[in-house]
């Protein structure tokens, strides 16, 4: 009996009853129109008028379901009462495309049509079944002129079968409700499920979320990674000359203080964006740019000869920030793999259409140990350049190591990345 009267069957039955209630305004409006077109002294008791009004009410319901808010309401009711399988998700949000609205209209019409039929059966059949089941036990009921029963109903074998007939009617109503509920549950993922456009929009949102996460991860990697490399090297050098060169120790401690203060500020900015839970726009991604390059080179922990050609003040903000991070990551790699005494040559050239960044450093005599989880710096540099429409390359060059990046200066659509 569980498929007919279990919890899921009862919830689906309630869902159908709600559909019948929603059908009533359309049905009454259609009944009024049909009554004017086909005059009848008693339109509410005319079966032909009611069937015609029912047929006219469904298209009216379908038209109203074309409105965008209809899908969220239908989805909420289906999730709560219809028992849709969990592996077949329903769509979220208003219907934004024509296909989604048409599917929603189909679902709404099916829900109200089946709900109207089941509601009518629920209202009429139980009293009829109760009356039939009571006939064997009530002579006055059998002799009632209102019912107008034939004399054959007084035969004993017919009276013995009447309770079973009434019970069969109730079971038939339950079967109809269970079938209609199962039909709605089966069609819900098709009519209320995500359309191809919905799936594409969801994929684009996931891709945008991943892009933001990768962007923030690059910011943390470049800022914190560079700071830790510089601080580690400077602290180690200060420890070795602690007794013999106090002046160098003071300079190293000052550099460590400046590096950590700057990095904490950058870390707070990135973590603030993470806590907000919103995608950072160009104005929110405020970080150091090329105008802060002097402070970076002064406290980076390696000797750097820097040559700047052109006016870096004309470089767009997004390009300037990314160029700063590229230089920072290049210096971190030189510091990490070559140590503090490795000289680095940095060249920044501002041309009419692009910004070129070139960083040369000698290769270490022996390969540096690979850090667990490391190796993302060069990939992050390449990603930064690609997002701006440029390119970056890194590899051996003339007996040393060269990092070269070319970033276009056009900013159409890039400030929002």
TrEMBL record:
SUPFAM superfamilies: ATPase domain of HSP90 chaperone/DNA topoisomerase II/histidine kinase. It catalyses: ATP + protein L-histidine = ADP + protein N-phospho-L-histidine. The keyword Phosphoprotein applies. The chain crosses the membrane at residues 12-35, 47-68, 108-137, 157-185. Its EC number is 2.7.13.3. InterPro entries: HATPase_C_sf, Sensor_HK_TwoCompSys, Sig_transdc_His_kin_sub3_dim/P. It comes from the Bacteria. GO terms for cellular component: membrane. Gene3D superfamilies: 1.20.5.1930, Histidine kinase-like ATPase, C-terminal domain. It is an enzyme of class 2 (transferase). The keyword ATP-binding applies. GO terms for molecular function: ATP binding; phosphorelay sensor kinase activity; protein dimerization activity. It holds the Pfam family HisKA_3. Keywords: ATP-binding, Kinase, Membrane, Nucleotide-binding, Phosphoprotein, Transferase, Transmembrane, Transmembrane helix, Two-component regulatory system. Residues 213-278 form the Signal transduction histidine kinase subgroup 3 dimerisation and phosphoacceptor domain. This is histidine kinase.
């Amino acid at each position: 009996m569980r498929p007919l009267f279990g919890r899921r069957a009862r919830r689906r039955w309630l869902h159908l009853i709600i559909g019948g209630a929603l059908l009533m305004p359309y049905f009454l409006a259609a009944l009024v129109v049909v009554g004017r077109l086909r005059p009848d002294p008693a339109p509410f008791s005319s079966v032909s008028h009611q069937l015609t009004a029912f047929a006219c009410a469904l298209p009216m319901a379908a038209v109203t379901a074309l409105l965008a808010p209809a899908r969220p309401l239908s989805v909420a009711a289906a999730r709560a009462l219809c028992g849709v399988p969990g592996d077949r998700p329903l769509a979220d949000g208003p219907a934004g495309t024509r296909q989604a609205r048409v599917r929603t209209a189909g679902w709404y019409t099916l829900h109200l049509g089946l709900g109207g039929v089941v509601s009518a059966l629920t209202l009429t059949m139980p009293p009829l079944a109760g009356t039939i089941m009571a006939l064997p036990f009530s002579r006055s009921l059998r002799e009632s002129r209102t019912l107008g029963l034939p004399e054959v109903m007084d035969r004993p074998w017919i009276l013995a079968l009447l309770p079973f007939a009434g019970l069969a009617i109730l079971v038939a109503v339950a079967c109809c409700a269970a079938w209609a509920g199962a039909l709605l549950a089966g069609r819900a993922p098709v009519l209320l499920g995500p359309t191809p456009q919905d799936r594409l929009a969801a994929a684009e949102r996931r891709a945008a979320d991943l892009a933001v996460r990768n962007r923030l991860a690059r910011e943390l990697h470049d800022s914190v990674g560079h700071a830790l490399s510089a601080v580690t090297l400077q602290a180690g050098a200060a420890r070795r000359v602690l007794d013999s060169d106090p002046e160098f120790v003071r300079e190293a401690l000052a550099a460590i203080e400046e590096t950590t203060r700057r990095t904490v500020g950058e870390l707070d900015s990135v973590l603030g964006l993470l806590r907000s839970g919103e995608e950072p726009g160009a104005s929110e991604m405020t970080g150091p740019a090329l105008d802060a390059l002097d402070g970076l080179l002064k406290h980076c922990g390696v000797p750097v000869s820097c040559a700047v050609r052109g006016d870096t003040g004309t470089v767009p903000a997004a390009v300037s920030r990314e160029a700063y991070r590229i230089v920072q990551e290049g210096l971190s790699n030189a510091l990490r793999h070559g140590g503090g005494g490795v000289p680095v040559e940095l060249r920044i050239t501002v041309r009419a259409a692009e910004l070129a960044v070139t960083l040369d450093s000698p290769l270490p005599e022996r390969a540096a140990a690979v850090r667990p989880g490391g190796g993302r710096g060069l990939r992050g540099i390449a990603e930064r350049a690609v997002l701006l429409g440029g390119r970056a390359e890194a590899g051996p060059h003339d007996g040393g190591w060269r990092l070269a990046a070319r970033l276009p200066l056009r900013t159409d659509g890039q400030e929002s990345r």
